[in-house]
Design brief:
heterodimer; A: mainly alpha; MetI-like fold; globular; B: Rossmann fold; 2 domains; 12 strands; 31% helix; 19% strand
Chain lengths: 306, 377
């Protein structure tokens, strides 16, 4: 039966709403591209040893500082190591730093923000000023100081376990992200805790912690996720900054930051080293930021309807 | 205590027993504000029997919502409450949080005003119903789900089996309010607070929701406190009506008595503010002049005196106490010169004349060519 165009639109509109849970928006090409880039790099980094990626520490002196070639697709660094291999293996350290630091910050900062935003009162009066103080110290200096004190050889001959160093970098950047993530979680939690459904849950006899975790937290998660994705990008870039001060991931383990830091002097002679690595960082951070926006947009619908 | 029977069934939840279900004695609730103490509820007492409905009527800021929340114990941190609340003869006014949580749900529950905000937008409606079932009644997952479907069916939600998996934003306002009611009814409360349950809804949906509440109340033998600013909402549905003004009950009577023989000028003013179908179109509405008093510095004497057409010197100085018209009548009012008393006759006549003027047909235009007699011949 031909319904005519206006009828068809109506039917479509009804079908659009009708099935429970089916009316989800599509993600869009940009989001898939961003997810593909981030996940693809991660997968590549994990399976690198089995797909013929050269050892990132192996030097090819004859290729030192040379640009892209058939044998070495992205060229070689100052010592002749394969740049593609270093970037791919560097993804491991950079991802661990980026996601690890934010996960750490989110776990502690997010929890504190949730508790403080939900209960307010005395806990708020104690914890929030502490976070503000932490926020007042220059973030980068704080992270740098932590790494320098905790994981830098203090005497000649002393060596630091590379994974301890990596852990301290994660810890330093994570600590710095606590107040940022905490404050955003607190503000969002406060707004949601005012809603009537929180009172309704209380009126049905739910315990405070139950309300906090099961009623408020699911509403706060989108905001936390969005800012966390931005945070991952910031942490990856910050590791690069630490590397320039010699406080990043320890060589010879590659990270995007120390690839740039090691060959910063080669910028005039063979700019491809820094340009290509920077491009990878740039694309990754952009993908993360874009995904952050997608998260906000996707969950925004609900609020406008309610 | 045996688990209340949840779904409509043979055993109603609030069986008749000795004594009233709820007794409220001199409840006062104050909020501390930068300007001073706000006396939101100022000495309210009443009793409510099982299965009965008390309508609480008043304009915005009269303390009606705060009263219901004071009784339930759902007040914000800056509130201070005194007075006694006896639920089934037990003093529940100063329970610790743990005991209070046990009370909320199976004993008393609340239907909130705005279904748009009273449901959690990120949880499926089914979960919002089953949560309290599993918590209070120790049901397992399947049992709770089945009960939730039955509850949704009881509140007349079509296709409850699939709707249980819907999110609040996939439902209309009326349906959401039904879900809110289902959530409140889930544990079979003996006392239901309905805090302006229909204010946010369309008029057509209002009647459906109110009928639904009345039906559920009958089936469960549940007492209800229906808070509203709309006398029309409580007219056919409440057994008793309490009119509140400035945090006090100013008149309380069985519904029929209140409408036929109100004594308090405020009630009269509220009733005359309702447009009547019999009035010709374009009749001016009888608004109550002025505004409710400042609850930080309430006026001396009767709080309604500044707006009362009958107010005399005494009303501004001496606060009237709630007195019963005749012993045992159940009709209480707080007024020095109640409606119909001889002191008011003159003012009442003036008001009546004004009302007649307002509904009188407009005078015929002057200098009409034909007189009325000539035209008819």
């Amino acid at each position: 039966m031909d319904l005519g165009p206006s009828m068809a639109v109506t039917v479509e509109a009804i079908e659009d709403q009708a099935p429970a849970g089916a009316g989800r928006k599509k993600l869009g090409a940009g989001a898939w591209l961003a997810i593909g880039w981030i996940v693809g790099l991660g997968v590549l980094a994990v399976i690198a040893p089995w797909i013929g990626v050269p050892d990132p520490t192996e030097t090819f002196p004859e290729y030192a500082r040379s640009g892209p070639s058939a044998a070495h697709w992205l060229g070689n660094d100052g010592l002749g190591r394969d740049l593609a291999a270093r970037i791919i293996y560097g993804t491991r350290a950079s991802y661990i730093v980026g996601f690890g630091a934010v996960a750490f910050g989110l776990l502690i900062g997010g929890f504190l923000g949730l508790v403080v935003g939900f209960f307010r009162g005395r806990v708020d009066a104690i914890i929030t000023p502490l976070m503000t103080v932490l926020l007042a110290i220059p973030q980068f200096v704080l992270a740098l100081a932590l790494v320098t004190v905790l994981a830098t050889p203090q005497r000649a001959g002393e060596t630091i376990n590379p994974s301890v160093r990596l852990g301290v970098v994660v810890l330093g950047l994570g600590l710095v992200s606590i107040p940022i993530l905490g404050r955003i979680t607190r503000a969002t939690t406060m707004a949601w805790s005012e809603r009537e459904f929180v009172l309704a849950a209380r009126a049905m006899g739910a315990k405070q912690f139950r309300i906090m975790f099961r009623e408020v937290l699911p509403n706060v998660v989108p905001a936390m996720l969005s800012i966390a994705l931005l945070g991952v990008g910031i942490a990856i870039v910050a590791e690069g900054g630490l590397a320039l001060f010699g406080a990043g991931v320890q060589l010879p383990t590659p990270s995007w930051g120390n690839i740039i830091a090691t060959d910063k002097d080669q910028l005039a002679r063979s700019p491809h080293i820094i340009l290509i690595t920077s491009m990878v960082i740039f694309l990754t951070v952009m993908a993360l930021n874009y995904l952050g926006d997608v998260v906000v947009e996707r969950f925004d619908v609900r609020e406008s309807v309610l | 205590m045996s688990a209340p029977h949840v779904v409509d069934g043979p055993a109603p939840t609030g069986l008749p027993g000795a004594g009233p279900l709820l007794e409220v004695r001199d409840v006062r609730t104050q909020f501390s504000s930068p300007r001073g103490k706000v006396r939101a509820v100022d000495g309210v007492s009443f009793t409510l029997d099982r299965g009965k409905t008390l309508g609480i009527v008043g304009e915005s800021g009269s303390g009606k919502s705060v009263l219901s929340r004071s009784i339930m114990g759902l007040l914000p941190g800056n509130a201070e409450r005194t007075g006694q609340i006896l639920f089934e003869g037990r003093d529940v006014s100063d329970l610790d949080p743990e005991a209070r949580r046990a009370l909320w749900g199976p004993e008393m529950a609340m239907v909130f005003q705005d279904p748009m905000t009273a449901l959690n937008p990120v949880l499926k409606v089914g979960r919002q119903i089953t949560e309290s079932l599993r918590l209070h009644l120790d049901m397992d997952k399947a049992e709770a789900r089945e009960t939730a479907v039955e509850l949704l069916r009881a509140v007349r939600i079509p296709e409850p089996e699939s709707r249980i998996n819907a999110y609040p934003h996939e439902m209309s306002g009326g349906m959401r309010q039904r879900v809110v009611i289902a959530v409140a009814l889930a544990c079979g409360p003996k006392l239901l607070f309905a805090d302006e349950p229909t204010t946010a809804l369309d008029v057509t949906v209002q009647a459906q929701v109110l009928d639904l509440l009345a039906e559920q109340q009958r089936q469960r033998y549940m007492a209800m406190i229906l808070v509203t600013h709309d006398l029309g909402v409580v007219a056919g549905r409440a057994d008793d009506i309490a009119v509140m003004y400035a945090g006090r009950v100013v008149e309380k009577a069985p519904t029929r008595t209140l409408f036929s023989g109100m004594r308090m000028p405020y009630t009269e003013a509220l009733l005359s503010a309702i447009p009547k179908l019999a009035d010709p179109s374009h009749t001016r509405l009888n608004a109550i002049g002025g505004r409710p008093p400042d609850l930080v510095n309430p006026p001396a004497g009767c709080a309604f005196a500044p707006r009362c057409p009958y107010a005399k010197e005494r009303c501004h100085q001496e606060q009237p106490v709630l007195t019963e018209t005749a012993p045992g009548s159940g009709h209480f009012f707080a007024c020095h010169y109640p409606v119909g008393s001889p002191e008011n006759a003159e003012v009442a006549d003036q008001l009546e004349a004004k009302r007649l003027m307002s509904i009188a047909p407009p005078p015929p235009p002057l200098l009409q060519g034909e007189g009325p007699e000539g035209g008819e011949v």
